[in-house]
Write a structure and sequence with these properties.
Helix content is 57%, strand content 0%. It is built from 5 helices and no strands.
Length: 127
């Protein structure tokens, strides 16, 4: 199934606190049809592909990750807008987190939830 067109309703997305300033124009908590269209157009332009090809790429990513189209679009936009230096640091930190999670025999998601203090998203008092 192809990705939703901007006119189709998308589920609400809850994003973490403290998003970097370069993704501040992504609506929160839900992506409106106009925002979807804008993000798709911007992403296609950044990637030098047609909007339809970019929409298919996002849908394929969403299917592979088992997340909604809106989530895949938001995460992809966040990553594509990330400055190159921050992108490198991001992957370095991700590698460290993956290694630590493997050392303790838990998934990366569970490892991060343990560190931040559970499923409610509230930071633990250890920080």
């Amino acid at each position: 199934m192809l990705a939703p067109s901007p006119s189709q309703h998308l589920e609400s997305e809850i994003r973490p606190h403290g998003n970097p300033p370069y993704d501040s124009d992504i609506p929160n908590p839900a992506l409106e049809p106009a925002a979807i269209k804008n993000l798709l157009n911007d992403g296609a332009r950044r990637s030098r592909m047609t909007v339809d090809a970019y929409r298919s790429l996002i849908q394929s990513t969403a299917n592979s990750a088992r997340v909604s189209f809106a989530t895949a679009l938001q995460v992809t936009t966040f990553f594509e807008r990330m400055p190159p230096g921050e992108r490198s640091a991001f992957f370095e930190q991700l590698a460290l987190i993956e290694q630590a999670a493997a050392r303790y025999g838990v998934s990366v998601g569970r490892f991060v939830r343990i560190i931040i203090g559970g499923d409610d998203g509230e930071a633990s008092s250890r920080h």
